[in-house]
Amino acid sequence: MLLRHTPKEITERSALTINPAKTCQPIGAMYAALGIHGCLPHSHGSQGCCAYHRSALTRHYKEPVMAATSSFTEGSSVFGGQANLVQAIDNIFTIYEPEVIAVHTTCLSETIGDDIPQITRKAEADGKIPDGKYVIHVNTPSYVGTHVTGFANMTKAMVDYFAKSTGQKIDQINIIPGYVEPSDMEEIKRIAEMMGVRVVMFPDTSKVLNRPQTGKYEMFPEGGVTVEALKTTGDSLATIGLGRLASGPAAQALDTKCNVPCEILDLPIGFKATDRLVDTLRKTLGITVPDSLNNERGQLLDIVTDMHQYFYGKKVALAGDPDHLIALTEFLVSIDMWPIHIVTGTSGKKFESRIREITKDSPYPINVKAPGDMFLLHQWIKNEPVDLLMGNTYMKYIARDEDIPLIRMGFPILDRIGHSYFPIVGYRGGMRLLEKILDAILDRQDRDAPEESFELVM
Amino acid sequence: MTNTIFAERKDQVHRKGEEPFQMACDKESLAGAVSQRACVFCGSRVVLYPITDALHLVHGPIGCAVYTWDIRGALSSGLELHRHSYSTDLQESDVIFGGEDKLYRALTQLIDRINPKAAFVYSTCIVGIIGDDLAGVCRKVEREKGIPVIPVESEGFKGNKRAGYNAACRAMFQLVGTASTDDISPLSVNILGDFNLAGEIWIVREYLERMGVHVVANITGDGRVDDLRRAHGAALNLVQCSGSTIDLAKMMEEKYGVPFLRVSYFGVEDMADSLYKIADFFKDVDPQVMERTKALVRDELSELYPKLKEYRKALEGKKAAIYVGGAFKAFSLVKAFRHLGMTVELVGSQTGTEEDYKELHEITDPGTIIVDDSNPLELSSFLQEKDVDIFVGGVKERPIAYKLGVGFCDHNHERKEALEGFVGMLNFAKEVYSTVMSPVWRFTPRKRALYSKALETDVCHEIKAIEN
Lengths: 458, 468
Known about the structure:
The structure holds 2 protein chains of 2 kinds. By secondary structure, chain A is of the alpha/beta class. Chain A has 3 domains: 25-162, Nitrogenase molybdenum iron protein domain (Rossmann fold, 3-Layer(aba) Sandwich), CATH 3.40.50; 170-291, 3-Layer(aba) Sandwich (Rossmann fold), CATH 3.40.50; 296-452, Nitrogenase molybdenum iron protein domain (Rossmann fold, 3-Layer(aba) Sandwich). Chain A has 17 helices and 14 strands. In chain A, helix 7 runs parallel beside helix 10 (244-258), helix 11 (270-285) packs across helix 13 and helix 12 (291-311) runs parallel beside helix 17 (426-448). The model of chain A has no long low-confidence stretch (mean pLDDT 96). By secondary structure, chain B is of the alpha/beta class. Chain B has 3 domains: 40-173, Rossmann fold (3-Layer(aba) Sandwich); 188-301, Rossmann fold (3-Layer(aba) Sandwich), CATH 3.40.50; 312-461, Nitrogenase molybdenum iron protein domain (Rossmann fold), CATH 3.40.50.1980. Chain B has a 6-stranded mixed beta sheet with strand order 1-12-11-10-13-14, with helices on both faces. Chain B has a 4-stranded parallel beta sheet with strand order 3-2-4-5, sandwiched between helices. In chain B, helix 8 (200-211) links the parallel strand 6 and strand 7 (214-220). In chain B, helix 4 (100-114) runs parallel beside helix 6 (134-145), helix 7 (161-173) packs parallel to helix 10 (246-256) and helix 19 (445-457) packs antiparallel against helix 20. At the A-B interface, strand 1, helix 2, strand 3, helix 3 and helix 4 of A face helix 1, helix 2, strand 3, helix 3 and helix 4 of B. Strand 1 of chain A pairs antiparallel with strand 3 of chain B.
């Protein structure tokens, strides 16, 4: 019993987080930066931060993850990290030759007050930034927000640094996919393509973090949004930001900076949210939804029709990021399942009220907390057991202790594959989720049924 | 990409045989390099965290706690307190107004809740900058709660991983000498620098038991606070892993007169040598110990060698590359590969010392590349140049090897098979075999290119090599 120290009774806990359901800003910034083509993320802080973020992303994606670090020493933390960053910029452009260096800060460099734009200007003045190359930056103090905030901030930095309005509109739509997997980004682009929509997606980690085996080690894989494409985002007809927390700031920045109207939608997980994405694309561009896409929707619906009795009334506990949880909760409720315990490590009053709204017809009391942690989630489960868990790999401790099936989703997934290649967004992503849910529930039923009621079809 | 080696790094890479051996190491990493190194905090955390019945509280922003949560499979035979993630989760207001009060509340709440034998409180970068009096809070809580509450000075920026090992050793040293050493056998040791990955310390303990040697404390794999407190009563410290616990051994030698032996449990020779050294140390106390040790080694080897031979047949002539955290592990790996009939083409470490690299230079063959604090670009170019069949490294190296179509063995956090002891050598051989000989490489571009080249030039043995 790994979690034997988890008591059923919930006592007020201040000052202490146990088994977190979040991590810190810089890793989100690093992930987003990997979605720019030819970009080397740069961590302005101690070596450990960079090593940890690279390790965590590597373990999640099973892909090489490149990022450089300012390698702070005691000296730099007293006298500032300017010398380190200028030298880093010089070294990186000399040896690794990226198109873009995307600098994010850490708690250390934030607190000593390094001014990144000033340092970058110094590097530029010293001739350390070759022509046609870029250094962008974002402030990501680890003690503010979470990895989702870091992702949102770096994505916004792409707008701040690159988006331009030439006054000539281009027949294209910006889609900010949210803090989702490369497979999800691919799927969203596929849906747009089916509808005949030209899309600039940023960031775009597909073909970066789900690469094939090529026999080559490529520091800068073929994927990622190009700087050229980013520059045109200011001339796009509209922006769709998926996920309020992860994509909202960039979408709004683009509206403010270049007058590109934006629509902020939920992540397209499940029927309703995918419908809203498809409908927004349809209305924005005045196009019709192709049969092929309607067909996919019909298939998703068909699965629910065929299997709805198995979904009915199943209780679920969820941990993850707010954007995911909102859409996922809505999907589960729409197929008659009941998410009753929901935590995220990211704070947000709006999140809580949104979840309460979605689950208002639930026959059970709903536990929702933002920010909460997995320790609290486990306590809730002890008080009101569930049939299914959905969350990242760290949830397997609870799954084992309470003997409840777990579907892995979110970040990080360290012990399974699939998330980089198979989406959970869109109608087809919905079908994949349903397959996973049914497998988990029915495998459990097959395992647990007493001999006398064990049937070929349960 | 024109250069794969930074000009500034030239003296951290050496090709044996080319020029007189000289290696610059223990250097700070170059800013801007994609270094594989970690920080002070990381060093402290990996060393201390396997102490299973202590509370490990990370005082800092959430990331530091998350990235080290159950970071490696340090197995426990009892409590598993160490596998939780406890953090003060510092927020902006704490950074402005100080985090001492939050730390005090977190510590007292946790100690009341889980009743640990001791608490380790890890400092992080930010704590070093805002100047929280970690030691002061720890002293206060220690007085109030009556258990040892030990600050670990592991601010990330204060050096590299090795500095973190040192901080961990200083923290543990505060526990040593605080309990009675009655009833400790004169034939007794502490096991230092083994973290019980995949249950390895249990293998070593079993050998020692068969030799008649009693183990006082595991430091730190499957470690216990009470054992550490009486560790100074052991007759000898066995120190594995070059960096991580040597400082503790030195401190214990100085203060308590406990001598130490540097040992390694990886590979046949090193394992046997280590046991003989231990036996030799105790020969005056118990003249029979050497006999028992010889019998043990004989038994183990007669079981191991026939099995190993099978693997060797298949692996003879294959090429290996090694890039690990500590150089000490690299020594053993070089020898272990030799046992399998394989050559080592590249060997390096994140934190080796000059001494370490001298030794590596001595035990490797001409042409071997020796490297300190490398980066992915360098590593991948060396792997390709040497056309190796297997790369031994850690988390961040694995996908680089796989992308190139090279086999891989994790000798660090993610190892799942016990690689220590005689049985470990067999497991290692199995693991090397399973990856080097995997049919998957036949489908990868690198080997397919080799294959077609072999067909063109009609070099049958190359085809055979691939088919085998």
